[in-house]
Write a structure and sequence with these properties.
The chain is mostly helical and 97 residues long. Helices cover 30% and strands 0% of the residues. It is built from one helix and no strands. The chain is flat, with a radius of gyration of 26 Å.
Length: 97
C-alpha cells in the first residue's frame, strides 16, 4: 500500500509543480539576448530593368532608437510578456471634493 501511495505521489507532484517550473524557465529565457534584437532594416529592393516594381506602400521599417539605450533587464525584472501585478500595495486616498 505504501508503494502505491509513493507512486501516486510521484505521478502527481510533477503535474502540480509544472506551471511553476515553466514560469521559472520562461523568466530566465526572456532576459537572455533574443534573435529578434539583432533585426536591422534592409535597403530598398532593387528591381532589374524590364520588371515591375512591387507595391511597397505598406512596407515596415525598424524604427531608429532616439535617446539613450534602455538598461538591460535584471533577473528580478518581469518579462515584457508577463502580465503586471494587479495588487495595489497601498490604498489610494479618497479624492477630496
Amino acid at each position: 500500500m505504501k508503494l502505491r501511495a509513493a507512486w501516486a505521489l510521484a505521478a502527481v507532484l510533477p503535474v502540480l509543480s509544472g506551471c511553476h517550473a515553466l514560469r521559472a524557465v520562461t523568466a530566465e529565457s526572456c532576459h537572455k539576448p533574443q534573435p529578434y534584437q539583432k533585426a536591422v532594416s534592409v535597403p530598398p529592393l532593387k528591381v532589374p530593368s524590364g520588371l515591375n516594381r512591387p507595391n511597397t506602400a505598406n512596407a515596415l521599417a525598424v524604427p531608429v532608437l532616439k535617446g539613450p539605450t534602455p538598461p538591460p533587464p535584471t533577473a528580478k525584472d518581469p518579462c515584457l510578456d508577463a502580465p503586471p501585478s494587479y495588487v495595489v500595495p497601498h490604498p489610494l486616498p479618497a479624492p477630496k471634493d
